[in-house]
Amino acid sequence: MLGAEAADLLDAPGGARDRQLLRGAALRVYEFHQGFAFVEAEADGYTGYLDTAALAPAVQPAPNASVACRETLVWEAPNARSMARSRLSFGAGVHVLEEAKGWARCDIGHIPANHLNIGRRPQTDPVEVAERLLGMPYLWGANGAGGIDCSGLVQLACHACGIACPGDSDMQAAELGQALPESARLQRGDLLFWKGHVAWVSGPDQILHANGYSMNVAYEGLSAAMARMDDAVIARRRL
Predict the structure, then answer these.
(1) pLDDT per residue as tens, the chain (239 positions)
(2) What DSSP assignment string belongs to the chain?
(3) Domains in the chain with CATH codes
């Protein structure tokens, strides 16, 4: 399990980021090499290297709650004036020991209870989940710690709703939901894919995506986006 707030999943020891893992992510560890562990993320089968310091101790309790807002802090005491010791992103997992007076005492400190999805209940609207990250900076390969990319936004929202989802947009285009014919009328929650890019349909002639044009998670008019992009839509999927 990942014990750090977040960790980059690298293509080689000390290499480039392929994806990103958040605290509480379940992992299979296959080998250790030069201070790095070669791991597989159980949620999507993604493999890569991460710093061994990011791994949780073997006795770490399994998460029973996850961060439900864009980000939260972990306080030393259940008091807004106490010191904050760390920062967690949407979807990060913690183990709640007890709730009292609006605070959750967790394995790593205290978090406002309304910042958590205690019991990790599946959400029902992936677009609403993605909307919680509006304005987050675009960061290629990231899943919400310091930034996020297009496929990370789709994966994070799907996982919050209990929907299995791979990490890369090409795999998402092949595996998520059902293919839509070009004649089908788009509706909220549909996914549009371009070469190397994916966006949620969030409303009539509107998409929501993490993109390198505005460099953040943003709404954009679908007609304007299609006029701006050089590549045509290559897939339309409905969950």
Answers:
(1) 999 999 999 999 999 999 999 999 999 999 998 999 999 999 999 999 999 999 998 888 999 999 999 999 999 999 999 999 999 999 999 999 999 999 999 999 999 999 999 999 999 999 999 999 999 999 999 999 999 999 999 999 999 999 999 999 999 999 999 999 989 999 999 999 999 999 999 999 999 999 999 999 999 999 999 999 988 999 999 99
(2) -B-SSEEEEESSTT--EEEEEETT--EEEEEEETTEEEEEETTT--EEEEEGGGBPPTTPPPPSEEE-SSEEEEESSSSTTSPEEEEEETT-EE-EEEEETTEEEETTEEEEGGGEEET-PPPS-HHHHHHTTTTPBB-TT-BSSS-B-HHHHHHHHHHHTT----SSHHHHHHHSSEE--TTSPP-TT-EEEETTEEEEEEETTEEEEEETTTTEEEEEEHHHHHHH-SSPP-EEEE-
(3) 6-54 (2.30.30), 65-118 (2.30.30.40), 126-238 (3.90.1720.10)
